Amino acid sequence: MLHVRPPCDVARRRTLYDVRTLTAAISQEGDLFVAQCLEVDVASQGATHDEARANLIEALELFFEDGDLVIGPAPIIEQIDVAV
Q1: What's the pLDDT tens digit per position in 23-38?
Q2: CB contact at 8 A, 23 and 77
Q3: Which of 24, 26, 32, 27 is nearest to 48 (CA)?
């Protein structure tokens, strides 16, 4: 039987801390991808979508290290039509 363990860093974070589900908006701006958390004012960037997402997770973990666990309500995400 093969057991696949997450990297130590991920396993340690999940056992020592609460895991929260937050919303990320990731968009491409020129050559970079920009990732922004919609519940708290934290953003990051990366050369790829996955890198921007990983960098945002790291930035959020650093943000919450200070004990500031004030998280806004989950945003309502919807598409709208605009005449242009």
Answers
A1: 999 999 999 999 999 9
A2: yes
A3: 32
